[in-house]
Amino acid sequence: MTESTINALVSPEGSLEILSNFEVNRLKDRSEGGLYRLFRQCALAVLNTGVETDDCKTLMEAHADFDVRLVPQPRGLKLELVNAPAHAFVDGQMLRAIREHLFSVLRDIIYSYSIPQSAAGLRRDDPEGITNLIFHILRNARVLQAGRHPDLVVCWGGHSINEREYQYSKEVGHQLGLRGLSICTGCGPGAMKGPMKGATIGHAKQRVKNGRYIGLTEPGIIGAEAPNPIVNELVIMPDIEKRLEAFVRTGHGVIVFPGGVGTAEEILYLLGILLHPDNADLPFPVVFTGQQENAEYFEMIDQFIRNALGDEAANKYEIIIDDPDKVARTMKQGMKDVETFRRAMQDAYYFNWMLKIDPVFQMPFEPTHKSMRALKLHRDQPAHLIAANLRKAFSGIVAGNVKESGIRHVQAKGPFEIAGDPELLAPLEAMLKEFVAQDRMKLPGSGAYEPSYRIVSGAVQAAP
């Protein structure tokens, strides 16, 4: 059955800065250097909010006749949508949340790509420049709110989780909302939606009118994890590394629910940063939590971390099983500790400038067969570099699973090969097999999972 579509002319929700002719032309440009394809991909993902899919390539192919055009107006801009998914509309009118998200896409793509490369402090190949760029994108999106006390809990976890795990994440969000805490996630379904949905109920009970449900995504993943409708502040970062840095710069603590390779990537990113000596005394509450049935899952994650990064890494988080109230109380106390520290150090509440992030975590990693095979997965390096390289391995698997470019690489040349120290790779392979067995690689009902990776024995060597 062919999905129904609709043509529509859509006005911006809220204010949209005036666009220059140069910006409009780049958005219309369908060549390799233009922004049309990127904008169309992100716009289509937003219009599919609520649709259960995690395959960006399939989504693009299913809506090959979708088009989005810019229509200049005397006092602004409208978007003409051709063959847009009808479920984004009610009685011919686009859902307000989707309209907000659509123009957030337009705002962030324009801003991220229109900043001159030579602008002071915004160099994309310099660590401080990257952090500055992230700050400017978040400020332009009005995410940074001066004077607001620390209250933002980042929630990570799988998009492919079962109903019991979803309900648990929702109850944790409810307890956070009852304590006036706000939620930031990767904006998609599953453990990204549950805490937001629960928090809305908690906020309603406490009459919290300024509750925040921030969704941070990036172009490569948005098609696989379309924003859920509860997100009221959506930001599209240029790539996964800037998305991850935005999480830890704006969030005041992190809760990790059960997930797959994407969640493992986030955990390794965070622990790699917290293990840096300059961050030793910096308060940053981290809790791993799930139901009693998830106890073995977190034991597996804990053992993997201890084996790869050492016991010091395990000291950076607390595991709380089947106790949403305790999770929320731990985060509430963590917020107080963060506030005390930031005030003493005269650091901003809204952006963690003091957090030291090694450049290896900032530079974009492009998963290809050559770059994946060349990863340095051995113990003869500091723990934070082990974390960085393992993070890249997981990032490549995520790309092969759900990102359009990664899927095409795997279809063309077969699974990515991952090589290195057997002492690191054996536990890695065992954990990946468990993710597959628990249906954490793909959404339930989306068919049998075809691995996008292959663990190979032997020393690391560059692929031909």
**Strand-residue proportion:** 5-15%
Low-confidence stretches: 460-464
Helicity range: 40-55%
| Cross-sheet strand order for the largest sheet | 9-8-7-6-10-11-12
Category by helix and strand content:
alpha/beta
Instruction: Round the mean pLDDT to the nearest integer and report it.
Output: 87
Give structural notes:
Residues 9-112 form the Pyrimidine/purine nucleotide 5'-monophosphate nucleosidase N-terminal domain. It catalyses: AMP + H2O = D-ribose 5-phosphate + adenine. Residues 335-456 form the Pyrimidine/purine nucleotide 5'-monophosphate nucleosidase C-terminal domain. Its EC number is 3.2.2.4. Keywords: Glycosidase, Hydrolase. The chain has helices at residues 21-28, 36-47, 56-62, 96-114, 127-140, 163-178, 194-205, 219-222, 240-250, 261-274, 295-309, 311-314, 324-345, 369-373, 383-402, 404-413, 422-437; strands at residues 5-10, 67-73, 76-85, 89-90, 93-94, 152-156, 182-185, 213-217, 233-236, 253-256, 286-290, 318-321, 416-419, 453-456. The strands form 4 sheets. The protein has a 7-stranded parallel beta sheet, sandwiched between helices. It is an alpha/beta fold and 464 residues long. The termini are far apart. It is globular and about 60 Å long.
